């Protein structure tokens, strides 16, 4: 999974840099205007009482740029951020953070569509892996897969619960041939051995093992248990 690109720092415009545009009766930047900041970044768009507020385009000298809504110099509302590595986020912003609902297209072609909180994938969302076509549909917490979810592959899928990015507890694999395998994921600890140990790391590794219990025809599945097939 691709890591989220960090935001480029936008420079404050408190009477710094060159400005060409409308001003208020008090001399503040107010209305539409263009600014070139001392660090080489540029902004073209709307101002209110000296702040970037309203619609605008902020271009970074490294090639990244943001086009969308501002409120008092911060990205706030709907907007699109194009990152230097070719990735892109389109969606909601609150106080300079990805927050609300949005779509992130990563540099490797993966995509995430869903809820965000304070810059992280958080809530319900769908992550699609471009190379394999696999798809994770379900819960997220602070950027990590967590909660009830479905991991969909080419000819089978896993339904269950995830914790810290890994499946945990009871779940089932559903196969396109018309059957499903019930079971649970069990964590087992293995000794890393003296050669692999480091001072700051625990000496045990956690390994996930799938323990199958039964194979059945397709059933209706809920997080609370199995329901018999409809007649």
From TrEMBL:
Entry's localization field: Cytoplasm, Cytoskeleton, Flagellum axoneme
One GO cellular component term noted in the UniProt record for this chain: motile cilium
Region (Disordered) location: 1-44
Biased composition (Basic and acidic residues): 20-30
Example GO biological process: spermatid development
Main subcellular location: cytoplasm
Domain of life: Eukaryota
InterPro entries in the record: MORN
Acidic residues biased stretches: 1-19
Keywords: Cell projection, Cilium, Cytoplasm, Cytoskeleton, Flagellum, Meiosis, Repeat
Keyword Transport: no
Function statement: Functions as part of axonemal radial spoke complexes that play an important part in the motility of sperm and cilia.
Protein name (database record): Radial spoke head 1 homolog
Organism this protein belongs to: Eubucco bourcierii (red-headed barbet)
GN (gene name): Rsph1
